[in-house]
Known about the structure:
- It is globular, with a radius of gyration of 18 Å.
- It has helices at residues 18-39, 75-87, 105-109, 126-132, 144-157, 175-185, 201-207, 214-222, 251-257, 270-280; strands at 2-4, 8-9, 12-13, 45-47, 60-66, 92-98, 119-124, 162-166, 170-171, 190-194, 197-199, 230-232, 235-240, 246-250, 284-288, 294-296.
- It is 35% helix and 22% strand.
- The longest helix has 22 residues, at 18-39.
- α5 (144-157) crosses α9 (251-257).
- β2 (8-9) and β3 (12-13) form a beta hairpin.
- With 305 residues, the protein is an alpha/beta fold.
Amino acid sequence: MKLQAQARFDGAPTTAAGGLRRLAAYYAVAGNVLLSRYTRGLPQRCFGSAARPDRGEFTVAAVIVSRNDDYGGNLHERAAYALRSALGTFDKVLYVDWASPSTDLLHDIGHRLPRSGKLSLVRVDPAHAAQLVRHDPEAQRCCEVLGRNIGLRRLVAEGFDYIVSSNIDIVFPGAEPLRAFVRQRLAANRMVTVARRDVPLDDVRRLDSDDPLAVSRALQAERPAYRQRGAYECDAFSLIDACGDFQIAPRRVWEAIRGFEQRLIYRLFSDTGVQAKAIAAGFEVAADFDFPLFHIEHGEGGGGR
């Protein structure tokens, strides 16, 4: 099943809002000055020998942002499942660790992950993170918009054809399903958000094996696609519930909209905000319910967001 974006902004079709596009472009440029100035020197560490992606038909990379604070409980276990499947799916995974109180997440779970050279880390230490949010006590403890943009800037500069913004508790299906999805659903002017299918952690444990993609294959047999809850009543740009778990677009789209809206350093609306920016800039945004994407359920405890 597919859903096409028919979003409107202040009651007017966004395709006709030229002033809105200019305003969105202004804020995109102005908001990214801070990030560019203060994050350019952050080092990127590769796990294993850096792998050159096979350019082939196209390349796809992913940025994932989290914080080593056990948010939701069992974070290390959930993150290991997610990253193992991500490394079997994408040409590169760039993990941005945002203000972890002590060691970064990969420091603690790296021994569970393959050293394929596809995984890289950018760590933003707590002092640097506080500077980037201007010491605002209300900002997200794991500031998604800034963390994602740090990753997006690097992946755009490295020339990946398509870039995914995702989360640390998602089970991905593998390279072949992803590449088939890109061929069928992506276009030069389109961003797509994918509806996740929720799954208990105990089910993931039950299906786990040495093959990092076995969990996804088994879950696809047990949990076929279903039409998820649609857009929030107060936010038509979301298209689906939890739209930020998988947002994919060609490099030129991310580059044109300058990534996520960096004023949204608080909880909520950061993921729908980037879709609103894409629509305002004249791009198409669509939702997909068929691509097999699984979200490992969790609580709200731990360090919080």
